[in-house]
Amino acid sequence: MSEQHNRADLGKDPQRVSGMFDQVAQNYDRTNTVLSLGNDKLWRVATTRAVAPRPGQRILDLAAGTGASSVALARSGAEVVAADFSPGMIAEGARRHGDVPGLSFVEADATALPFGDAEFDTVTISFGLRNVNDPRAALAEMRRVTKPGGRLVICEFSHPQHPLFAGVYRFYNDRVLPLVAKGVSSNAEAYDYLNESIKDWPDQRTLSTWLREAGWTDVAYRDLTFGIVALHRARAPQA
Question: How far is CA 165 from its chain centroid?
Fold first, then answer.
């Protein structure tokens, strides 16, 4: 009997989303590299540079998945907590990277983080905020656990601004990506949800507004790969 695939929808029920990521955890990083045409590695480098980790810092990497981004941060000598609400992702990350110095794995819900106030110098989240059922509550929680003057870095899918490139991108997502996902993913239906969540996600300016409403300051963003992805940055207000 074939395994029943878990597929989230835009209701983003936490249990369904978590279960879906549990099922794709083993091949998740390889599938992302194929579907992004290798750009995921470039986006990770850009995010790491924006975080600018330093020895002695305490960094929270949310929606860390299997910890690929967290390892890059921990290599700086910072203490990195890789958090994800999928136990399957956390287990796979701990299996792969559990021996990396300064890196720990924690199961956590971004809307109710299991950390005290002002624990982290920097909070970062890559390609996970749009999977949270209440992203604005998550932005407020991230601010709560960030030290005054501390930094937030968000790397997330966004919306290309140039009409021609936006059309090409829509064609790839609608026609090409589903076919490739069937060939390389253990749960192709999960990538149907990926498409839906990207289309439903707000543009760069709207997310910037959400950040300001959550109390973040010095809010800014820059587009990566023509706006397929946007890198957002902000600071927690000084005490």
Answer: 23
How would you classify the pairing of strands 103-107 and 79-84? Answer: parallel
174 is in an annotated binding site: no
Q: Which domains does the chain have, with CATH numbers?
A: 14-235 (3.40.50.150)
Q: Is 110 annotated as a binding residue?
A: yes
The one-character DSSP state at 135 is H
Q: Is 99 annotated as a binding residue?
A: no
The predicted-structure confidence for 29-52, as pLDDT tens digits, reads as follows 666 666 677 788 899 999 999 999
Check: CB of residue 173 under 8 Å from CB of residue 237: no
Query: Which of these ranges, 18-27, 79-88, 148-157, has the smallest mean pLDDT?
Result: 18-27
95 near 65, Cβ under 8 Å? no
Annotated binding residue 126: yes
